[in-house]
Amino acid sequence: MKRTADVIIVGTGASGLFCALHLPKSMSVLMITKEDATLSDSYLAQGGISTLKGKEDYQSYYEDTMKAGHYENNPESVEIMIKSSPVIIEELVQYGVDFDKNGEEIAYTREGGHSKFRIMHHKDITGEEITSKLYERVKERENVRIIEHTMMLDIIEENGICRGIVVCEEDGTIHPYFANNIVLATGGVGGLFEHSTNFRHLTADSLAIALRHKIALENINYIQIHPTTLYSKKPGRRFLISESVRGEGAILLNKDGERFVDELLPRDVVTEAIRQQMKKDQSDHVYMSVKHLDKKELLTHFPNIYERCMEEGYDMTKDLIPVTPSQHYFMGGIKVDKDSATSMPYLYAVGETSCNGVHGKNRLASNSLLEALVFAERAAKKISEQKGSLKEVDVDLSQYSSKEQIQKEYCNIVLEEIKRRDGEFYDKWCHNEASAG
Ligand SMILES: Cc1cc2nc3c(=O)[nH]c(=O)nc-3n(C[C@H](O)[C@H](O)[C@H](O)COP(=O)(O)OP(=O)(O)OC[C@H]3O[C@@H](n4cnc5c(N)ncnc54)[C@H](O)[C@@H]3O)c2cc1C
Q1: Is the pTM of this model over 0.90?
Q2: Architecture (CATH level 2) of domain 4-222+331-429
Q3: Kind of pairing, strands 101-102 and 105-106?
Q4: Which residues line ligand 1 (CB under 6 A)?
Q5: Does the structure show a pLDDT above 80 at 154?
């Protein structure tokens, strides 16, 4: 098998796929992924993707994003994201993505922190609709090869330049792969936490690798806890009850059936209110109620959430739903510029793995898919302009003995760094965290 390409993309979520689609067809592209190509958080996105509805919405959208991010956002990145959004949506439609409509009009929804209805969606499975269409389009590209069940163990560095990656293939053998440019699109950090909405295999490998290679990181302790995930004692991924359910009128109740917070406040504020309430109630959950909402509307807009709650024994049209906060999203990451370039030449990072400052301290709902696509496209454009530098260098593979051992080490490296940066966050949320798996 050929283990060189013009571009290697690690990760087959929305950011990796969108990047591949925007690279010229004349470039050979190799994509690898740890699991099946369809097992990525991008498939899990429920609520939708934000967009600028018109010039008159700009100031309001900008302000909502900055406010949610505690004004720690990078203003230039926010401006780029918002202004690029109509083109991105148009491209998605061209790729075959179907957004919900009311008759001829787009059916916009709203989530916590948004002062306007500006979120486009496909029922409550927007991520699956978008990512599956991107995946189909990528499979049609003759210049792109996707290899599944293949894990990046390291990057290959020569004199401070990225030359390729070290990979563990499906049969357990370890090989160097070389390319002119490498794009890390490895998603978030949820696999490090016991309670997370993320896939368990998203264990922040890129961050550990970046730390080892002294690649600049940013805000590694800015980790979003989602206020409302379905409470369950079962192990594994926590099921998210999207903010758009609150956007459509769901209320939160304490053990006495009383409301205790404005449900449409930004995520971090609602999360803290729930945490305080659970303490007062001496409980590990609070309740969400949608019983007062129109049943037909609920079933049309949230069929997936309805079904998943039913599986756990709750009919959301009649019962209170127990909910609890869980790790959900990573605002920090590998520090990148507005073209997604990292501090190491020929190495790019896109999507949740990267930090271009769009989200500041706290992400505004439905801004992550958009951010991932906008800056993945910019990375592709930048890479397209570059001349090749392919160089196959010697790599000592004996240091990569066991994939499992490396995985465990990487989890510890990242958790230790989070603890070092923010002991309070670590004590609050990383307690009891499972090691990778
Ligand atoms: C339940 C849920 C609901 C969400 N809802 C929304 C929403 O409504 N709107 C919104 O905007 N955002 C939402 N998000 C966030 C959004 O889905 C993600 O931020 C975004 O899709 C991340 O895309 P990505 O391409 O960066 O990473 P992912 O889609 O997570 O893809 C990561 C890829 O990297 C691969 N990978 C990881 N490590 C390695 C390695 N070492 N070697 C090889 N491959 C590796 C994985 O296998 C995977 O293919 C939601 C997230 C979750 C979990």
Answers
A1: yes
A2: 3-Layer(bba) Sandwich (3.50)
A3: antiparallel
A4: 10-16, 32-35, 40-42, 44-49, 126-127, 151-152, 185-187, 197-198, 201-202, 205, 240, 329, 351-353, 366-369, 372
A5: yes
